[in-house]
Amino acid sequence: MIYLRITPVDSWFFRDGRPFHLGEATSDVGGLFPPSAFTVVGAIRAHLARSMGWREGKWSEEICRVLGDGYDLAGLRFRGPLLCREGDRGPEMLYPAPLNLLGKRNDSGYEMRLLRPGEEVECDLGRVRLPTAEKIDGMKQLSGYVNGDQLKQVLRGEVPEGRVIPREELWGTEYAVGLERERDTRTAKEAHLYSINRIRLVRGVHLIMGVEGIDEGLLEKLDGAVMPIGGEGRMGCVEMLSPGKGVSEIRQEIGPIDGRVRFTLVHITPAFLGRWPRPGESIPGVPGEVVSACVGRALRIGGWDSVNRRPVELKPFIPPGSVWFCEAEADELNDVMSVSRIGEYTGFGFGEIALGIW
Amino acid sequence: MSDSSSEINFTIGPVQGFIAQARRTRDLWSGSFLLSYLSGCAMAEIRRCDGRIKVPDVEGDQLLRWIESDGEGAPPRIGTLPNRFVASAEDPAGAARSAAEGVRSRWKKIADCVWNKYVEGVADQGKNTREIWERQVNNFWEIHWTIGAMEGMEARKNWRICTDWSDGRPTIEWGDHCTIMSDWQEISGYVRSIERKKQDDFWKEIRQETSGMDLRSDERLCAIALIKRMFPSVAEDAIGWEVSADRWPSTLYVAAIPWLSAVIESAERDYANDYAKKAFSYAEHIQRKGVAEQIFGRKDLFLEIDANFYHTTSLKNPKSTPLKMTPEDGDEPEDVRRRREELIECLEELYNKKGKPSPFYAMLLMDGDNMGRLIRESGEAVSRALASFAKDVERVVHDNLGVLVYAGGDDVLAMLPVERAMSCAYRLSVSFAESFEAQGMEATISAGLVFASHRVPLRSVMREAHSILDDIAKDENGRGSMAVSVLKGSGRYCRWVSSWKGAVSPENEVVLERLAKNLSEKPDGIEASSSFFYKSRELLLMLAGEQRWSPGMFFDLSHLGGLDIETLLQAEYLNALEHRSEITEEVRDSAVRYVRDLLSVSRRHRGPEHERATGKEICADGMLLVKFLSQKGVQE
Fold first, then answer.
1. Whole-structure pTM value
2. How far apart are CA A217 and CA A210, in angstroms?
């Protein structure tokens, strides 16, 4: 897989689900960041289609054969998008802080604890082992990012060293107002005023997206490209990383204990599951059953179907950082170890998980 | 708490997802009230199963009494029951299941009332409207309960799966989204980009059903937002009593309260009432009954008109202030335009005499600190303390000319005029601490206070209030803190945070408010202040070696060693005054005191859990906040 580094030329705008119609005043339209894989894949495919001669309307058969169309990716496969930050020791991949990591601020940073399945509790889900830990008074889930080493520690069941990187160290939100002016009076046109929240990445922070299945001639079109990405046609610069550079799989070696394999699945990118497993049920494509979980509120991802000029349905995705605590039979160990993506749209980059122990 | 095996911990959510996504103050109130009402329904069901509510103390609660059909006196109009509670019962799981069922059935009844009155007759003009409605109504609430110690509920909150999801996951929402709650489809079912006319016709019909005033022409709502919006008008059928929701002042009205008070207490009162009579004769549907009585305890014609009629900027826009015969589109006929000009002239005359009303109001959100731990350690004493605090909240808010939206458990939500909002927050924090002291406990409450222009969407104001309360006051600064943010139409103007202790003088005055008052009483001072405050910010930025200022930024100046910031800022202050006033000894002394006070509230004052309560870092936003308060938010 080849990895692309995408850097904004200025700020970016990735809007949330609020209606945004021409001719209607719309205020404070929020943003989604990192953007969904549909958005980034869409930008890359549109750029490649343009380089194959497309200008507007439906794609030609030739383009569809190479790039697919809609949810059909033909031979393409993507990974990400993930965040990367230039550090003292070179580029550092960042991952959403796992939701089983709790923390409380103190003078030296954060005091942290790791949740794991506790004793059975009777609740609205039945008698289940809810995720818990000792001495977590006043602690809350940390909504920032961890680096690869810290994620590996969490996957080993250890509290990570250092601190979680807060979002504001990676990007800021900028409030921007847009309007259309009356031609004669040059005043703001009624109902054509809107305000949006743009994203500005801190210097040295980039998006990383993996791509494979593109032939070399076409792939070259991406290196050094400047392409529109997200709303308002705002631009991103694309650089191809050298082969071998990019995101490596992160997984913890797992061994059976007393004939059982206890493992965690940590969502690195959002995942769409037709049904969210309940205690005792299994995750599609994953051996064993769910014992417990730390799952965040659904991330609703939709979009705009520019060919049919209509909104794409808003689907509930399991947010990145969510953690499943699972258990399988010892003889299913190899099947467990081979899991790297779950759910639908994995070809776009969704459903990527890291494997750990509990 | 003793034996926990019979203990039920119960919560209903999503709280922010239901309350904060509001476009009008009435939506905000409706969301708070409905959530509180549904929580009360769960409590009533547990009591019906011979259970007992342990936290909060509900014995004197008027809302619960009325839910149990046992109420006397005036029906409750404020939500007083929190969305989470602790109860006990002999069969706790059975009681919890009944409580959850109770919530679902009462919610369904409210939804049915709104459907029957406003949607049923129009539904066949929509595209799968009934299906969308049921999907949203049946899949909205997240009702969680655990049996045993409270830690179980903390653990349950980490796993947001719901037993009630029809499809085993949150719903997929097709088509166009609601203009208020963007995660949900609007109920006409049409897609605007290709079926615009059908969608518009559907909503036109609904607007006619709602007599036009309750839905704006650009509002296309999901079932949840429509239920919130129309609940007040079905309340009697849905819950058994009227809720008088037309008594809810708009944000613009709250902003104008000090001005209205000044006008009505002055010799201009008759002039103002004549203006109101004129406005009533030129426009329809502009009376806001009951609002004045609720806030001022009196009736006056001038106090009962739509707040847009207090502002010439709104009067210049026919869409904000339609008069009789104002067309929906296009220009007003000549005679209507003349009447409009007449109203504007009258209002400007009043401005000449009594000044302009402020376009800014304050949204106050407060929440007790470490309540989970306190409840675990001494649950029922906490209940008693909270009950005592709750009794005080409405009085304190009312004394400060504010409007209480919600007060349940340790949570408070209120709207206030700008001038007295910080004092009100501080008085509430004192009342909270005293209520706990009376029970032999120490406890603090934190606040998120947003000063917002009425032009900033309510949703954004609520988002900011939650964000500064949770992230800035509680998380970053520590418990017992107040975070303040100013939102102008152009974005966030400044953000300031302090512990209560750092915010008040030994005489218990909120220092920022005192400084602002001093400044506003010296006309020269205000003029000078603009350059002083901005120059000071630039100076601090430069000394700290930072490139760019952002609201809420603290500057670390420890590397500057012996540099005396205080003297430097005094010189800046005098320099700003130099061209306007003579620099006498008295002025010099006053500058010393003023800058000292400014610096004292600009330093970092953290909560007691931090090793050093007072830090050396300085936040320039304290000064900007003084500037904003001194101008009473008149300049947007």
1. 0.91
2. 17
- Please tell me which residue of chain B has the smallest CA distance to A132: B155
Contacts of A21 in chain B (CB under 8 A): 192-193
What is the rounded CA–CA span in Å between residue B487 and residue B469?
15
What domains can you pick out in chain A, each with its CATH number? 2-88+193-241 (no CATH), 91-167 (no CATH), 256-357 (2.60.40.4350)
Question: Looking at residues B140-157, what average pLDDT do you find?
Answer: 92
HEC profile for B340-376?
HHHHHHHHHHHHHHHCCCCCEEEEEEEEECCHHHHHH
ipTM of the complex in this document: 0.92
Residues 403-442 of chain B whose Cβ lies under 8 A from any Cβ of chain A: none
Instruction: Tell me the nearest-neighbour CA distance from B383 into chain A, angstroms.
Output: 19
- 3-class DSSP state for residue B396? helix
Q: How far apart are the C-alpha atoms of B57 and B95, rounded to whole Å?
A: 19
Closest CA in chain B for residue A276: B169
- pLDDT-based confidence at residue B164 (cuts at 50, 70, 90): confident
Mean pLDDT (whole number) for A251-270: 92
Read off the tokens for B185.
Answer: 């489809």
Query: Of B201, B185, B167, B194, whose CA–CA distance to B128 is shortest?
Result: B185
pLDDT of residue B519: 81
The DSSP secondary structure of A203-229, one letter per residue, reads TTEEEEEEEES--HHHHTTTTT-EEE-
Closest CA to A353 of A274, A255, A252, A254: A252
In 3D space, the residue among A346, A334, A237 whose CA is nearest the CA of residue A4 turns out to be: A237
Residues 6+ apart with CB under 8 A from B82: B36, B39, B56, B408, B409, B410, B411
| B residues 178-197 lying closer than 8 A (beta carbon) to A | 178-179, 182-183, 185-186, 191-194
More confident residue, B611 or B23: B23
Exposed/middle/buried for residue A171 (C-beta within 10 Å: 0-12, 13-18, 19+): buried
| pLDDT-derived band at B10, boundaries 50, 70, 90 | very high
Is the model more confident about B70 or about A342?
Answer: A342
Of the candidates B114, B108, B84, B107, which has an alpha carbon nearest to the alpha carbon of residue B96?
Answer: B84
Q: Which residues of B143-178 are buried (b: 16+ CB within 10 A; e: fewer)?
A: bbbbbbbbbbbbbbbbbbbbeebeeebbbebbbbbb
Q: List the one residue out of B433, B364, B368, B442 whose CA is nearest residue B404.
A: B364
